[in-house]
């Protein structure tokens, strides 16, 4: 196995592992959604404000997933480690 | 059987460089697709809102004026609810940010790469929010109170400084990452359908509605709301800190 092949494979593996960060926000957003349903059931007249707040909370909870996604994109398409290897002529 | 040539047909590229002006002090100066699309949207919005805001009357008689009043009224209500009457003067900035972000995200339906999928565009807005936040911090309470607000309590000073830097970063990555993720997922599915059945129809439509339209709306709303929250939370005046 060549060095560059190993690094490329490891980058792909890293991208896949980074997307494990989707687990936490997924559970968190489900919790937010469930709580919003409870709140709307208790107070249907406030559903507009509850939905707005819920979406805001969802998007903020999503931030860590998006960080992981940006990192995975870097690994998949920008190849930082493979470029480092090529620059260092290893 | 090799998968490599097939996989390499799908690639992710940044915005097209329309014109290259060489380098200025080591920084490359380029006119990119993002800038041109932004100017196009500015032109469209300029003409649209100029037409909407012409010949206004006290009692709306035209449909045009009702639409204009609805837009302005919604934005007024948003800023008033989130920031309070004290910061109502930020309404034009917040409104412009929201409408512009929305317009840029929707520009994907004109067949262009939306500038909101370009990190440089969103990072500019993030830096603007950062500057406005800290301007308000030192303007509302003076230099000393503003500097003191970072060290409250004193042992949290380093983490407060880091969180101040990470605010614009998280805002930037959230907006740009979501739009770009939508583009890439849509592109992958389109490409896979093209490979499988040669006619990529129907399935990309609801995906595009969710990722381009709904996420475009949501991210614009969230970016504007967070900007409002950051600015009004940086109020260091004595009466605001007592409350």
Descriptive overview:
- The complex is a heterodimer of chains A (90) and B (243).
- Chain A is mainly alpha-helical and 90 residues long.
- Chain A is 84% helix and 0% strand.
- Chain A has 5 helices and no strands.
- In chain A, helix 1 packs antiparallel against helix 4, helix 1 packs antiparallel against helix 5 and helix 2 runs antiparallel to helix 3.
- By secondary structure, chain B is mostly helical.
- Helices cover 69% and strands 6% of the residues of chain B.
- Chain B has 8 helices and 2 strands, in the order H-E-E-H-H-H-H-H-H-H.
- The N and C termini of chain B lie far apart (69 Å).
- The N terminus of chain B is likely disordered.
- The chains are: A mainly alpha (90), B mainly alpha (243).
- Chains A and B meet through helix 3 and helix 4 of A and helix 6 and helix 7 of B.
Any descriptors?
A: 90 residues, mainly alpha, B: mainly alpha, two-stranded antiparallel sheet, 2 strands
């Amino acid at each position: 196995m060549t060095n560059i092949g190993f690094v490329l494979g490891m980058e792909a593996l890293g991208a896949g592992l980074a997307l494990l960060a989707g687990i936490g926000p997924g559970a968190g957003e489900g919790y937010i959604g469930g709580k919003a349903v409870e709140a709307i059931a208790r107070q249907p007249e406030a559903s507009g404000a509850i939905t707005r707040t819920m979406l805001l909370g969802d998007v903020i909870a999503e931030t860590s997933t998006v960080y992981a996604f940006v990192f995975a994109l870097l690994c998949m398409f920008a190849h930082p480690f493979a470029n480092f290897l090529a620059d260092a002529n290893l | 059987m090799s998968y490599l040539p097939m996989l390499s047909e799908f690639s992710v590229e940044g915005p097209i460089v329309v014109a290259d002006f060489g380098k200025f002090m080591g920084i490359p100066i380029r006119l990119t697709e993002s800038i041109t699309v932004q100017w196009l949207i500015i032109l469209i919005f300029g003409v649209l809102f100029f037409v909407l805001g012409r010949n206004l009357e006290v009692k709306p008689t035209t449909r045009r004026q009702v639409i204009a009043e609805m837009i302005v009224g919604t934005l007024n209500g948003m800023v008033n609810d989130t920031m309070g009457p004290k910061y109502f003067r930020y309404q034009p900035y917040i409104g412009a940010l929201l409408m512009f972000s929305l317009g840029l995200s929707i520009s994907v339906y004109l067949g262009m790469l939306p500038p909101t999928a370009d990190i440089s565009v969103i990072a500019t807005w993030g830096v603007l929010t950062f500057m406005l936040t800290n301007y308000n911090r030192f303007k509302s309470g003076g230099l000393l109170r503003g500097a003191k607000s970072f060290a409250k309590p004193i042992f949290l000073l380093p983490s407060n400084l880091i969180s101040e830097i990470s605010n614009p970063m998280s805002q930037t990555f959230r907006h740009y990452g979501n739009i770009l993720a939508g583009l890439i997922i849509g592109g992958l599915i389109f490409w896979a359908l093209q490979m499988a059945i040669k006619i990529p129809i129907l399935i990309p439509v609801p995906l595009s509605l969710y990722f381009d339209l709904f996420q475009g709306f949501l991210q614009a709303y969230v970016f504007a709301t967070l900007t409002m929250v950051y600015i009004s939370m940086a109020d260091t005046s004595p009466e605001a800190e007592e409350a």
